[in-house]
């Protein structure tokens, strides 16, 4: 069993935070993760931090922008797990990218997994398990033979324009059922 390198956040203290204080807790966690990375790579540049990511992604290392982006909705709804898992996940991407030959490394490849295990003491998970319904509403309903699928307005527009989507599980073509928005309004 691995031991996390960063201290576990206090759930009660995090639950009491709102607005700028909640944002400050995220920035502090990034600073702690950055300090840990600097022990390994002293010339690692400090990443910018933004809470402006939307959709299903919890975080993103954005090298062109020069920092880390986080999803404020998923953070607010999953505070402890977000600070424990997402911040080190994205900081590991930041570190690997800035290592020699890091730009050629696969996003969740051996180097990233090594940083997650050895530096952060965490199991290297490539995806989160957060409920994304509020962060990424998909009001357009499509169905196949095995389940219902939610489409974003963008994907719905592509499907309406003729793009064909198939279910990854049963391989059948998805068929439009209607919109959750119209059901709620009516």
What do these coordinates show?
The protein has a three-stranded mixed β-sheet. Residues 181-186 have low confidence and may be disordered. Helix content is 41%, strand content 13%. Helix 2 runs parallel beside helix 4 (79-98) and helix 4 (79-98) packs across helix 5 (110-119). It contains seven helices and six strands. The protein is an alpha+beta fold.
Q: Sheet bearing the most strands, described?
A: 3 strands, mixed
Low-confidence region ranges: 181-186
Summarize model confidence as the mean pLDDT: 89
Give the ordered list of helices and strands: HHEEEHHHEEHEH
Helical/strand content category: alpha+beta
Strands of the largest sheet, in order across it?
1-3-2
Tell me what portion of residues adopts beta-strand conformation. 5-15%
Could you tell me the radius of gyration in angstroms? 19 Å
Number of helices: 7
Query: Which descriptor suits the 3D outline?
Result: globular
DSSP E strands, number? 6
Relative helix content: 40-55%
Terminal-residue CA separation: 52 Å
